[in-house]
Amino acid sequence: MTKKNSPKIKRRRITFQYENPGAKQVHLVGNFNGWDEKKHPMKNDGTGRWEKNVLLVPGMYEYKFIVDGQWKKDPLNKASRPNSFGTSNSVMKVDLK
Predict the structure, then answer these.
(1) What is the pLDDT of residue 96?
(2) DSSP state, 47?
(3) Ramachandran sector of residue 10 (left: φ over 0; alpha: ψ -120 to 50; beta: rest)
(4) Closest Cα partner for 40 from 64, 61, 75?
(5) Of the candidates 92, 32, 33, 44, which has an alpha carbon nearest to the alpha carbon of residue 68?
(6) The pLDDT value given to residue 8
(7) Cβ-Cβ contacts under 8 Å for 86 (sequence gap 6 or more)
(8) Using the 8-state DSSP alphabet, how is residue 12 labeled?
(9) For residue range 3-20, what is the model confidence (pLDDT) as tens digits?
(10) pTM of structure
(11) Which parts of the chain register pLDDT below 70?
(12) 11, 20, 63, 84: which one has the fewest Cβ atoms less than 10 Å from its Cβ?
């Protein structure tokens, strides 16, 4: 199969949000970006709501926010999974819709 004939993988735009008016920096990290602290900095809308849009293919993802150097689970998402550090990561499923 050549590149022209290979099926195009559909991605969905997912918006991650984190509320913290006192935060100076928030980064989104997860298995979709190799847990890279620099790859997805979030933007403050001026009211303390931090947002980042990411295009993801359907699947299961684990993620966290790094808020001023501290790793935090998503307080708006109750789904989580234990990790190898003795804490847990937030988990989300992206469907094809």
Answers:
(1) 76
(2) S
(3) beta
(4) 64
(5) 44
(6) 75
(7) none
(8) E
(9) 566 667 788 999 999 999
(10) 0.87
(11) 1-7, 97
(12) 84
